Amino acid sequence: MNSSALFLKNIDVLVNNPNIPELDLLNPKINIINLNESPGLISLPSLLDYINKKRPRVILTNRERANRVLALGTPFINYPIKIVFRVGMPISTALERRNLVKRVLRKYSIKYAYKRADLVIANSNKVAEDILDITGISTDRIKVLNNPTVSDKLYELSNAPTPHKWLDEDIPVIMGIGRLARQKGFETLIKAFYKVIQRTEARLIILGEGKERDSLLNLIRHLGITDKVALPGFTSNPFAFLSRASCFVLSSAWEGSPNVLIEALALGIPVVATDCPTGPREILKNGRYGELVEVHNHNQMAEAILKVLSSPPSPSFLKDAAEPYRAIPATITYLKVMGLLSD
């Protein structure tokens, strides 16, 4: 998003809730528009009022609920506008977590919405395949584009002062980053870490906040490793931690194209990732740039971590994997595909 401000004069970010920590990281040239509504259909009148008054050339959504709300409002938009859905997660994964009735209704609403988009952007090939399978839209309306993840700001933030005493010690530090939610699989990571420290000294830091905090803390206490695991919570600068880690572990049950995995590689940090749907296998080029392990398999994860700690790849080799996700080239591609930038 910030890179777009280098090429476009006017960018508005529409939010229902302005109390989002990540908004503080936006380029000051980007306008934050608070719709002052709850997410969902109740926000439609405010959304339509914004669109018909401001008349943006393109509107880009990045949440399934926003896709469906915007699709319902398309008959009430009073001028030609390009509607673009950006999809970062496999739709089928979200559908599988619902009961049969909700799954059928949600699938119908998704099909309705996607047929009203002019363009759908997927962040990985597997996500694109999933979209085509679920929605039935034509292939010419979908593009696979890399996330514009790796910016100069990442490297600037990574050089901030050491944020945790463990990162100044000689003991290896394993990192996990993400919402403390079941999707992120941190229970598996903690169990794997417990196996790791039976064979070598190490520390584990998991950054993030969420509903699973108490459950994870109980597991840590149960395993007797409270002195070796830290859950500092959310931080606006995870890169100061990540750049000093010995290994980053993505333990997710599912993803789209996980930015944090790309960011770890860009910083030259060795990685272990679950071979979850979707993203890690594409980013790591089938395991060339990092170890891939089965989802929820803490024994396999522990072995992969031990392998990485004992024989880490060179930082320059790992950084090669992040090159396709450089912010400026990826942003230029995004803007060209949306018709906002000419060749």
TrEMBL record:
SUPFAM superfamilies assigned: UDP-Glycosyltransferase/glycogen phosphorylase
Domain Glycosyltransferase subfamily 4-like N-terminal: 38-148
Domain Glycosyl transferase family: 168-322
Transferase found in the keyword field: yes
Keyword Nucleotidyltransferase on entry: no
GO molecular function, one term: glycosyltransferase activity
Alphabetical list of InterPro entries matching this protein: Glyco_trans_1, Glyco_trans_4-like_N
CDD domains with a match to the protein in the record: GT4_GT28_WabH-like (cd03811)
Entry keywords, A to Z: Transferase
PANTHER family in the record: GLYCOSYLTRANSFERASE (PTHR12526:SF630)
Name of the featured protein: Alpha-1,4-N-acetylgalactosamine transferase PglH
Source species of the chain: Dissulfuribacter thermophilus
